Amino acid sequence: MPAAVLIVDDEKNILLTLSQSLQLAGYRTELASSGQVALDVVSARPVDAVLMDVKMPDMDGLTVLAKLTALKPDLPVIMMSGHGTIDTAVKATQLGARDFLEKPLARDRLLVALRNALKHQAAMEELQELRAQLGRFDMVGGGPAMQRIFSLIQRTAPSEGRVLITGENGTGKELIARALHQHSKRKGGPFVKLNCAAVPHDLIESELFGHEKGAFTGAVSVRRGKFELAHEGTLFLDEIGDMPAAMQSKLLRVLQEGELERVGGAETLKVDVRVIAATNKNLEKEIAAGRFREDLYYRINVVQIHSPPLRERREDLPDLIDTFLREACAKNGRRPLALSPDALAVMSAYDYPGNVRELRNLVERLAILCEGPVVSRTDALELLPRGRPLPPMPEPTVGGDAPPVAPPAAQAVPAAEPAASAGGWKPRVDQTFREQVEDAEREIIQRVLAHTHDNVTEAARILDLERGHFYKKMKALGLRRGQSEA
Ligand SMILES: Nc1ncnc2c1ncn2[C@@H]1O[C@H](COP(=O)(O)OP(=O)(O)OP(=O)(O)O)[C@@H](O)[C@H]1O
C-alpha cells in the first residue's frame, strides 16, 4: 500500500500542486488547509509522513509541529517555508522536524526528503522490533560497571524484591528501573512513574493514593493514585529522598500491608505493586540527619543497584557516542556522521557533570550543527562548554623514553590560545589576566589528569608538584577527580 502523506498549507494552489506531484511519485495524499485540520486528520487516520508549511494564519506550523510530535512522537514531519531563516530551521529541528525545505520546493529535493524520512521511520520501527525480540535492555555500555549493572538486572528482575537505584542525575536510573520491569513477571502490567521531587508536598498523597470527589478544594472527581494505577505492575518512585516525612510513614504502611485508602475515602483498597525507588541522595546521610526514615530505607533497599557517574566509566563513551550519534542523525534525517579519533579524544576528556543525559544532548547538537560528514576535533571543541574541553594528550610511549610531544599550537583550546599560538594571538577582553591564568592552569591539570586516567599521584609527579599542593590547586580551580587513583 502506498505511503500516505498529509500536506498542510493554507494556500489551496500549493496543496493541489504538491498533491499532484506526490501522487505522480506514487504516494497517497491527504490535504489540510490549517493546523487544526491537520491535527484532526492525524488523530483520526493513519498517516505515514507530514509535509507542512511554517507560515499559516490560524496556528503557525511550529505550534502544530509541537502538538503533532506530542501526539505522535514517531511521525516524520517535513517543514517548508518561503521565509525560512536559520533560526526557524533550528527551532523546527529541535521540535522534532525531520527536514526543512525552502519554498519554492524543488521536486527532486522534496522527493528525496520524503523518501529519507520514510526510510528512517521504517528503520527505527525495525530496530525497535529487533530490540524487543532480543529482549535486550535499552542500555548501552560494554565496560565493567555496566556489565555489573546488567548482571544485577538479570538476577533481580524476575524476583519480587524491591530495588533501590542510586546515582547522580542523568546516569540512567530510570532506564535501569524500566529494564527491571521489562524483565520481570510483571512486564505485561503497567510501569508507573512518580517523581517525588516534582510534586508539591501537599499533593503527593493524592498523587500516590488518589482521592475521592470533594476530598479537598479542587478534587472535583474521584481520581486513582499511582499505586492503584500500578496494580499488578511496577511503581517507580524517582527522587525518593525528597519525599516529605509525613508521606514516608504512609508509604511505609502500604509497603508493609499492601493496603491504602484514597484521600478522603473510607474504603481500604488492596494493591499488588512492586516498588522500585531511585535517589541521587545519600540516604544513609539523610537518615543520620533525621530527614529519611530508617525503617523505610530498609523496606525499599532489598537490592541496591548503583549507577556510577559517566566520568567513572569513560570506557563506555565510544559506544554511547556512536549510538546517540546514529540515533540523532536518523532523527534529524541526515546521513550517519562519523567521529574522528581526535574528536573522540576531546569528548572523552570532558567530565560530563550532567552524565549520560548531557552527553546525549551534546551529541544531538552535533548531529544538528556539524556541517561535514565527519565530526572533527574543532566541532567537538566548539560543542563542549567553554573552559572544559580538553585536547588529546600524546599517547604514552611504551618502553621508550622519547620526550612528551607538545601539542601543536592549532590544538590549543580557546582559553589557552594566548600562550599557545603566538602568531594568531589576540588579546582577550572578556577575561581578566587572573582568569586567563586560572583557565590555563585548569587546562594543564585537566590534560595531565586525562593523560594519567585521573591518577592524581601520577599527575602531581608529572607536574613536579607535591601531592597535597596539587589537590589544593584542583580544589581552588573547582576541579574534581573523575576516577579513583590507581
Ligand atoms: N546506559 C545507557 N545507554 C543508553 N542511554 C542511556 C544510558 N544511560 C542513560 N541514558 C540516557 O540518558 C538520559 C538520562 O537517563 P535517565 O533518565 O534514566 O537518568 P536518571 O539517572 O534517571 O536521571 P534523573 O536522576 O535526572 O531522573 C536518557 O535519555 C537515557 O535514555
Automatic annotation (TrEMBL):
Keywords: ATP-binding, DNA-binding, Nucleotide-binding, Phosphoprotein, Transcription, Transcription regulation, Two-component regulatory system. SUPFAM superfamilies: CheY-like, Homeodomain-like, P-loop containing nucleoside triphosphate hydrolases. GO terms for molecular function: ATP binding; sequence-specific DNA binding. The modification 4-aspartylphosphate is found at D53. Pfam families: AAA_lid_14, HTH_8, Response_reg, Sigma54_activat. InterPro entries: AAA+_ATPase, AAA_lid_NorR, CheY-like_superfamily, Homeodomain-like_sf, HTH_Fis, P-loop_NTPase, Sig_transdc_resp-reg_receiver, Sigma_54_int. CDD domains: AAA. Residues 4-118 form the Response regulatory domain. Residues 139-368 form the Sigma-54 factor interaction domain. One of its GO terms (biological process) is phosphorelay signal transduction system. The keyword Transcription applies. This is Sigma-54-dependent Fis family transcriptional regulator. It comes from Corallococcus aberystwythensis.
